[in-house]
Give the backbone structure.
Amino acid sequence: MKFDDIKKLTLKVNALILGMVFFLMGCFAYCGATFLVYFSIPTALIYLYGFYLILHDKLGNYVRMVYLWITLYMSICTIFLGNKFGFHLYSMSMIPILFYTEYMAYKMKTRKVETTFYGILVFIMYLVSTAHATYVGPVYNIDTRYAGIFWFTNSVIVLGFLTYYSRLLIRRIIDSDKKLTERANTDRLTHLYNRHYMMKRLNEAYDDDKNHYIAMIDVDNFKSINDKYGHSAGDEVLKKIASAMGEVCSDCKVSRWGGEEFLILTDDGTETIEKLRQAVENINVEFEGQEIKVTITAGVEEKDKSVALNKWIVAADEKLYIGKQNGKNTVIA
């Protein structure tokens, strides 16, 4: 999640909390909890000031201020109204949100919120306020029929925040895991699968009962291209060839095997590989005002369960070598 997205989300959450403050302020007034009505005024000012902090990119200060004030607000309301009104439930939503904040600070490489300190603070204030309400009794003896309404409202709010932020955290973790997996399996230059990933697919193909072929492919005269035009030109050539592979071999597993070598797992023998050879032959790689012509040579080998997997790969590589020795720009099967 980008910083601007987090900023927009925080603005929405702050507006929602401010609306809740005014709603509860009206409820306090209706029930005759005068102190809590007055206490709602600085609470509202805190969240109004929160808009300033968010808009000026001071999210860390905003988070710290809100955590402290919610902890105080939860405790004061519990002491004055008692446990039956459900304000102590807010502590349950604050703990997972604290750790979500720490996770986002890590992802954004910003200063993290002191989650341990705030977690202990919330825990202590929860114990103090609920113990006071249990053993001393609430300050206001409000008609208990209102307690059910408050408890239900606070429960819905707390469960809503818990569900939303838990879902948000899980989605972030899943997205991060997908990106890490993609990076682990993908070559950074060509965006094709890397050798590590392709070995997994080759093992699967070797073990199943279907007919498969592998094509070991090498860019012809690649060293000469690097020597003449530079390594940046060589990188551009590899990217262009990789792009052609993605288009022509869309039904195949395509990988950068190493350097200027590629390995393709296909089910149709030489047909697709020959189309690829022709497509590459027609590519004009433009680099710094110069056109570079490129060709490829491929060795194709059918799967044979009577030989080991590594021998399957070696056989394709040997056919590639034959193609190199016989003029290049060819497919040997």
About this structure: The chain has a mean pLDDT of 88. The radius of gyration is 32 Å.
